[in-house]
Each structure stands twice: as C-alpha cells, then as structure tokens.
Amino acid sequence: MSGSVSPRRSAEALIGYTPHQETSSKLVIVMVGLPATGKSYVAKKLSRYLSWLQHKTKVFNVGDRRREAAQNGPETTSDSLSTSDAKFFDPTSSECVSLRDQLAIKTLNELLTFLLDDGGNIGILDATNSTTARRQLVLDHIRQRCGDSLRVLFLESNCSNQTIREANIKLKLFGPDYAGKDPEASLADFRRRVVHYEKAYESLGIAEENQGLSFVQMSDAGRKMNTHLIRGYIGSQICEYLLNFNLARRQIWLTCTGESLDDKEGRLGRYSDLSDRGHMYAGALASFVEEHRRKWCAEPVLPGHNPDSSQFCVWTSTWPQAIQTGSYFSSANYDQTHTKMLDGLNVGNMAGLTVEQITTQHPSEVAARKRDKLQYRWPGLGGEGYLDLIVRLRPLIVELERTTDHLILITHRAVVRILVTYFLGIHREDLRDVQMPRDTVYCFDIEPYGISFRPFIYDNELDTFKELPISEIPFVSNR
Predict the structure, then answer these.
(1) Distance separating alpha carbons of residues 74 and 72, to the nearest angstrom
(2) Which residues are catalytic?
(3) Residue 35 phi, psi dihedral angles, 5° rounding
(4) Average pLDDT taken over every residue of the chain
(5) What are the C-alpha distances in Å from 139 to residues 29, 60, 115?
(6) Chain mean position to CA 124
(7) Going by C-beta distance under 8 Å and a sequence separation of 6 or more, which residues neighbour residue 275?
(8) Nearest to 45 by CA among 155, 128, 159
C-alpha cells in the first residue's frame, strides 16, 4: 500500500463516505403503503440508523409538504388541500389525484436536490405511493432528472396485525392533520381516507419485477419480509436492520463504568480495577435500576406490543472495571453478558498515559485529533477512532433492535457517546459536542412509536441518582 493512501479508506467505504457528484453511489428509498401501516415510523427509524452509519440521510414527507402548502395559502381552488378532508384522497377524483401527484413530484425534487447539490447520500420519499401509476411517475421523474445511474429502492410497509393497525389509526388524532379537532369526527374522517386508499391500492409485485426494480416488502415491523434484487452493501444492511425490528416496549439503560483506579489518575485506555468511589457508584447504580425494574414489573402489560415475558439483562464490556460495575446486579434478577463490542476505545500507543502526558509528548497527535475528532485514529497497534467504533458497534445496534429484553449497558465513555448519538439521532457534525459526564446513567424508554430519553446523575452525598432536566443536557436541548 502506498504511503499516500489513507489507512481509513476501507472503514470509510463501509460506513458511507461517497463523493458528492457520483450519483451511482447514492440511493433513493421510495416508501409504499396504506395509511397507518408504519411507513413514517420505518422511514424515520431507518434514516436514524443510516445517518449513524455516516450516510447523510434525510426523510422527505409528502404529507408535510401538503400541510405547508395549505398554510402558505391555497395553490389551487381545491378546498380539500387546506382542510386535509378525506375527499382530497378520493382516487376517483382526477383533480385530487393530479394535485397529490404534483405535491409528490415537488417533494421528490427537494429530495433530488439534496442528493445532487447538497452532498446527501440517501433520500427517503415518505408517502403512500400506493398505485403502480404513482410509482411509475416517481421513477420516470428520477430517470428524467438523474438518468439511470441513481439507485432506487422501493420499500413497502404492510400491517396485518389489527391491534397495531388500530393503535396506529388512533395515533393520527394527535398528528398535525387533526390536532385540536373533534376526535370522533377526526377518527371518522381518517377512516374514510383509509377506505379511499384501499380502493385503489396496488402492492409491489409483477410490475416492478418486470422492470428489474429493487424492492422490499415488510410486514408487521419485520415479522415477514420479501425482497427482490437486493444487491450491494447498503441494500443488505438495510434488509438486516429491517428484519430485526420489533415493537416491544422496553428500557435500555446506558452508563459508563464506575470510576477506575486509572480514571482517578487521569490515565486513558487500560484495564483497571474500580476505585472505592467506583464501587460506591456501582452499588448505587444496581439499587437504582432495581427500583425501576420493580416499578416496570408492577405495570399492567399493554396488549399487542409486549412479548409474554421480557428479562432484565446486564451487558458489560470485557474490561475489569465494567465487569466489576455489573457484579453488583443480582444474578437472580439479571442475566449477565460480557462482550468485546462494548470494550473501550483502543488508544493504541497512548494507553496508560494521562492527557497532560499526551499533550506534552505528542502535540502533533493532539492537533490532528482536534482538527477532526470523528476521523482521527489513535496511533499504534490496534489504535481506533470513532469511525472504527461505529463499524464495531453496528452488529450491537442490530441486536439492540432485535431483543425484546430490558438492557443495562455498562461500557466506556467513547462507546456511550456513539450509542447516545444513535438513539437520539445526532448528526455527525454534532458528534464533537456530545459530552459524556461521568457518574451519569441514561434511560431510553423504547416505545412502539418512538424513544423517550431520561438522564440521571449520581449524587455522591445521597448515594443515589436524581433526574436531570433535559435543558441541562446541551447535546439534547440544543437540537
């Protein structure tokens, strides 16, 4: 290998660095499906994952553009556009079909501009795209503007579980189309909208196969999948991710290890035992999580989303300070797993040095890391950077999505930082602003329709944890 070739090149190829002008390396994902089948949920979740993998990804929702058009003044003589009335979705009205197609193309043009001119890698068109004619219109417009080099993937979301479908429909009452309106009238209107779509709905199938198009059909959030002509790294990663969806309500707790002896001396990146303060933190953490476990177990089980039983599990890195922190959790209530995927960032030749020693002895490395913290890699055998860490943690993310268990992840600061950016959808340009204060535990409440976030900080005097206001977490409150 030539000395001019970056050693990071292969890792970057795996997680999404693509030249801005190469349309062959970019992707349009076209969502397909009836209303209330989880399209927007899938689109947003997939966008968060692809963005975390460092593909610049953005969702373009046609419904949002329809509401924006209505707020900015009627662009047409149709009252339905401004009222979001079910009449606007009548497939027998040529005027309404034309208006909906115009909004779809306008939204698609925004997506293509994002890919072609704004450095985007993946654009997701979030709309029903429920007929063969609409999908052909979208495809023809892409080909007209970009030629055949831009890749297109159709992604259909179906929902045969009536309990989940009914819950999705009722959620629409809190959406922008019906917020503040009479709930009974709104529910009836939305059901009429669904009926309109069902009359004209055409699933992906022979028409797309005959054109040699790539598509995925997904049922009940990953319960069943059908794929056609899925090739390449990104397509396979998308399918693997979608296959591991589940809608179980659960909690994921994320924290650094208790203070180690090396932490106490400010030394980086080594195996180390816990300090006395670290043991105090570990004991308080176990007691605090156990209190929340009991509260959770006392709650009534909601139908439709929860498995028959879900365990509370502790996952730690293989470093002694993590294993010792996890040892305070009772084996009777918590299964324990130690995995190298959660190991701390390998700092190579700098392991065991303090920040002051690195600053004094290796000023060029300090300057290089300051210039680009995301792409910097620590020198020496096994040295890693944040990009390497993302590649290492990708299988863990898929497993976090697959499991229905409650998890307590005990790991190290750099790993916590990368996992927090995934759950909160923090973009790569904001990664450097994600500070990880010690003695903090983050609780992510995973719900069927999103994630809520609660940070808790350890109070050394009271030997317990107190919840922090979101406003005191800069990388959350500033978003």
Answers:
(1) 7
(2) 126, 159, 412
(3) -60, 150
(4) 85
(5) 11, 16, 15
(6) 14
(7) 258, 259, 260, 261, 263, 264
(8) 155
